[in-house]
Design a protein that fits this description.
- The protein has 450 residues and is of the alpha/beta class.
- The protein folds into 3 domains: 225 residues, Rossmann fold (3-Layer(aba) Sandwich); 90 residues, Ubiquitin-like (UB roll); 92 residues, Up-down Bundle (de novo design (two linked rop proteins)).
- The protein is built from 18 helices and 13 strands.
- A 5-stranded mixed beta sheet has the order 8-7-13-10-11, with helices on both faces.
- The longest helix is centred in the last third of the chain and has 18 residues.
- It is globular, with a radius of gyration of 22 Å.
- The N terminus and C terminus are likely disordered.
- Bound molecules: flavin mononucleotide.
């Protein structure tokens, strides 16, 4: 069946925030009326290996930030051994200015639930935990309602249309987080799920081998799973007909950017909101065509294009043709696509202040296990506070860059990627807006205001 519209999530009301009243909760019957659960029914007639093979062929990459190929992750699981096997759905969504999963969870929950059921079938996982950000009260209510509908309609439970999965009745439970950014990191999420402090685990072993309760566990982002029904219903080729694809002339083993992506826009634009676009769309196009351009009287200075942890992109770079795809990091000196939720930074913003604010976030959210992250983020925060107050010196800027660089994910230095986020956020802001930092240290006051 060919895809008949540029937008896959037809049910996702991607209207701007201002039109929130236009959004509706899509219940089970509405969802089914729009081809909903047809992909699950198709998957029930397929072997688990064939479902995984189709997702692999589609080269569907994770939408949680790192872009890891979903089919490949699924194939890392050991064969069933009679014990329990888990799926953990990452709905923690705590990256600053990121709110794309929220829209799916609250308004189109069955697209996520269908993807969850299909992943359970493909990977032979009997139990799924939907780990949702603690602050998402309305989203939790909507999702719990959808889970109840799904049980009622025979998606999960003793009477599941999937029958037994891994020799057990398939079940889906919702688990609330308690507002910690670190619990979005997949192994911290597992610790938290197990009732412990959200501290990332040293890998290996990877969760596919020993995850929740030391059993094989797949962890995927909400949006990644919501894409699976489209891949199975329409086929890998249709999926690959969308998006930018592979970089020109690259061999097939080079990871590509296929399909669409939910993109958020926040900041002083006319139509902030969540939109769905094909990967490879120009950043300026998203801001102008979808976001309506800057508000009257505002000029854009820079963007965080994927949450703050991927680093910053200047307006000059954007005008040179920055494209939102998985190769953005290699081309524009940042960490990667991240969540593709864009924060527009207006001209009037002080980048020194912006950097200080980011450092404050990382310092507060570091779990404290790794010395680089625990000490470095707080040290950077203190230095930036001093620089912003006019008490910095030129040598502080070298120190700032050296410190941030040393926080990158050098093998064996950090357990998780939080520290690398600090590195990219701070280093790109300081490097790309160095003049503002120089001006801040050269206007050194004689009396400290700190
Ligand atoms: C500090 C930190 C926070 C993270 N927060 C999230 C999050 O809120 N949601 C998410 O899906 N992934 C988050 N991730 C990435 C996850 O560790 C993991 O890669 C992802 O859930 C895998 O799903 P995917 O392959 O479907 O993208 C975070 C990673 C780090 C290092």
């Amino acid at each position: 069946m060919p895809l008949d519209a540029p937008v896959l999530f037809k049910r996702v009301p991607t209207a701007p925030w201002g039109s929130a009243n236009e959004r509706i909760y899509v219940d089970y019957d509405d969802y089914v009326a729009q081809d909903g659960y047809a992909a699950l029914d198709k998957a029930i007639g397929m072997s688990p290996e064939d479902i995984v093979a189709e997702v692999k062929a589609a080269e569907l990459r994770g939408r949680g930030g790192a872009g890891f190929p979903a089919g490949m992750k699924w194939s890392f699981l050991p064969p069933p051994d009679g014990g329990q096997r888990f799926l953990a759905i990452n709905a923690d969504e705590s990256e600053p200015a990121t709110f794309k999963d929220q829209i799916l969870i609250q308004y189109d929950p069955h697209s996520v639930i269908e993807g969850i059921a299909m992943c359970m079938l493909a990977c032979q996982l009997d139990t799924a935990y939907f780990y949702i950000r603690g602050e998402y009260h309305h989203q939790r209510e909507a999702f719990e309602r959808a889970i109840a509908e799904a049980y009622d309609k025979g998606v999960f439970g003793e009477n599941s249309r999937m029958g037994k999965v891994n020799d057990r009745a398939p079940n889906l439970y919702l688990h609330r987080g308690a507002g910690a950014y670190i619990c979005g990191e997949e192994t911290a999420l597992i610790e938290s799920l197990e009732g412990k402090r959200g501290w990332p685990r040293i890998k290996p072993p990877f969760p596919a081998v020993a995850g929740a309760f030391a059993r094989p566990t797949i962890i995927n982002n909400v949006e990644t799973l919501a894409n699976v029904p489209h891949v199975i219903l329409h086929g890998a080729d249709a999926w690959k007909g969308r998006g930018k694809g592979r970089p020109e002339g690259a061999p097939p083993q080079v990871p590509a950017s296929f399909g669409t992506k939910l993109m958020g826009i926040s900041g002083p634009v006319k139509r902030p909101g969540v939109y769905e676009e094909e990967l490879g769309v120009k950043l300026t196009d998203v801001i102008e065509r979808l976001g309506g351009g800057p508000l009257p009287g505002e000029n854009i200075k820079a963007y965080f294009h994927g949450g703050i942890s991927m680093g910053v992109i200047s307006q000059e770079e954007a005008e040179q043709g920055v494209e939102l795809d998985f190769d953005i990091g290699k081309k524009w000196n940042n960490l990667g696509l991240g969540t593709a939720c864009i924060t527009v930074i207006p001209e009037r913003t002080s980048m020194v202040s912006m950097a200080r604010n980011c450092a404050r976030f990382y310092s507060h959210e570091s779990c404290g296990q790794c010395t680089h992250c625990r000490e470095g983020s707080n040290w950077i925060y203190k230095m930036l506070t001093r620089i912003e107050a006019g008490d910095g010196a030129t040598k502080d800027l070298d120190m700032l860059l050296e410190l941030a660089t040393s926080m990158g994910s050098m093998p064996g230095h950090n357990i998780c990627g939080l520290s690398d986020g600090t590195n990219w956020a701070i280093r790109t802001i300081v490097n790309k807006f160095f003049g503002e930092f120089e001006a801040a240290v050269s206007s050194k006051r004689t009396v400290s205001l700190v």
